[in-house]
Amino acid sequence: MTSLDNRAMSIDEGSDTPAVTDDAFLGDRLYILQPSSGYRAGIDAVLLAASVTNGPAEPTILDCGSGVGTVGLCVAIRCPDARVTLVEREPVLIDLARRNIDRNGLQARVSIIPGDVTSPAQKPEAPSLPAESFDHVLANPPYHDDSGGTPARDPVKRASHAMPAHALDSWVRFAARMSRPGGRVTLIHKADALPALLTALQDRFGAIAITPIHPYADKPAGRVLVSGIKGSRAPLELRPPVVLHEAGGGFTPYVGRILRQGAPLTSSRT
């Protein structure tokens, strides 16, 4: 559930830089350079960005483990007042993210800092950011357990696809440290990771909201969007599902508006 029907152009920039593609998002309003192999941002990233809806004037947004910046840059395009910070630990992805910020003219509102979101706050690898300074923290952690299967040879690809099972709690702990009181955190993950997500979020966030994401109306959910509000005591809410595709294979009108027009993810699915 990560492919998009957008334009892509392969670019080979020489032996020191991985081959990249130039991919269009949000109806050609945003162009993203990303590695042509390995983890590639697509539908999941756009849906996560669409979870940022109404909020305070000039909301502060943090994109954790941002990769080449797709999630945060989608937010910046959709929300003209948003101030977005990207955090990424891999130098090659940081370089591509900086180029994506520049080529889309978003230097005034988007910045990137190096750092490992799973590192304890006192360690030098941890991102250098003030605690409790963001209105909305977004995260798209690696989906797979690195103890299973054959790891990718490329270290960037390996880190993007898999992490230790216990690391999800570190992602949520970092999100809790960075979000202001009353701020929101939203993560997208595999549906079978929902128990681990809820365990990580409990005692840190309330008003938990779960949105199942189905590839087709008659298929089980493959992804979940899970959000919570720091310090809230409101009960958990199961929201209406998002269905990506119609029976014929095309996107549903609701999802098409999110992907191509930058519409927000709302409670209405019509």
Based on the model shown, name its key terms:
single chain; 270 residues; alpha/beta; Rossmann fold; 9-stranded mixed beta sheet; 3-stranded antiparallel beta sheet; 7 helices; 14 strands; globular
N-to-C order of helices and strands: EEEHEHEHEEEHEHEHEEEEH
Mean pLDDT: 88
Q: Which CATH first-tier class would you pick?
A: Alpha Beta
Strand content: 25-35%
Give me the CATH superfamily: Vaccinia Virus protein VP39
Major sheet size, sense and barrel closure: 9 strands, mixed
The secondary structure category is alpha/beta
**Which consecutive residue ranges, at least 5 long each, have pLDDT under 50?**
none
Identify the CATH architecture.
3-Layer(aba) Sandwich
Percent of residues in helices comes to: 10-25%
In short:
It contains seven helices and 14 strands. The strands form three sheets. Strands 4, 5, 6, 7, 10, 11, 12, 13 and 14 form a nine-stranded mixed beta sheet that branches. Strands 1-2-3 form a three-stranded antiparallel beta sheet. The longest helix is centred in the middle third of the chain and has 13 residues.
